[in-house]
């Protein structure tokens, strides 16, 4: 037994003095998930028009311009009523058609300007900017002019104009996208 004890004692001393030998076996595999890439390119989406400074400015400017024109049309109707002219400048039947015609004409010019200002912006964002500007701006123009009409004559209820507003909105959105497409591709 003393021989065995000396051998085990020597083996113990050698293991204490020499560094442990590395095992040739590979460690057990662990599930390792790679971190997501830090700078992955993402194609801009339509919602980005509300976060980019250039498209936000064009949206604000265009919508404000539509609202100012609607306000101007409303003031003309109000002054015409207050001054009591014998011939009305805007016959009541034509108020909505006139506001819609003004919105259509404005859409062509505003979206053409947006197309040139946003020349370096991807097409998808320019189309979206033009469409949203035309829809919201036209809605502002129609609402403000309707509000002034209600203050002066009170003939057309809000429920009566919804259908024609939807038709005008669809039309100006088509005109806006078409104008940008023509400006960019011709």
Structural commentary:
By secondary structure, this protein is mainly α. It has five helices and no strands. It has one domain (48-185). Helix 2 packs parallel to helix 4 (123-152) and helix 3 (95-117) runs antiparallel to helix 4. The radius of gyration is 36 Å and the shape is elongated.
**How would the global form be characterised?**
elongated
Number of strands: 0
Structural class computed from helices and strand pairing: mainly alpha
Report the order of strands and helices: HHHHH
Residue-averaged pLDDT, rounded? 79
Quick synopsis:
This protein is mainly alpha-helical.
Key phrases:
single chain, about 190 residues, mainly alpha, 5 helices, about 70% helix
Give a topology summary.
Elements: H1 2-17, H2 53-83, H3 95-117, H4 123-152, H5 158-185
């Amino acid at each position: 037994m003393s021989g065995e004890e000396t051998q085990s004692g020597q083996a113990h001393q050698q293991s204490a003095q020499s560094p442990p030998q590395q095992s040739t076996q590979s460690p057990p595999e662990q599930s390792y998930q790679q971190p997501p890439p830090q700078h992955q390119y993402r194609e801009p989406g339509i919602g980005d028009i509300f976060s980019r400074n250039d498209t936000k400015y064009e949206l604000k400017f265009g919508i404000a311009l539509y609202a100012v024109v609607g306000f101007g049309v409303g003031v003309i109707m109000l002054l015409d009523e207050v001054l009591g002219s014998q011939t009305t400048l805007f016959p009541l039947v034509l108020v909505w058609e006139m506001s819609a015609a003004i919105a259509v004409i404005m859409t062509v010019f505003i979206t053409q300007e947006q197309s040139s200002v946003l020349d370096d912006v991807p097409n998808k964002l320019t189309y979206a900017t033009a469409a949203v500007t035309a829809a919201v701006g036209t809605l502002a123009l129609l609402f403000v002019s309707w509000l002034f009409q209600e203050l002066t004559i009170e003939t057309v209820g809000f429920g009566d104009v919804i259908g024609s507003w939807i038709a005008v909105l669809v039309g100006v959105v088509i005109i806006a996208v078409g104008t940008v497409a023509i400006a960019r591709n011709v």
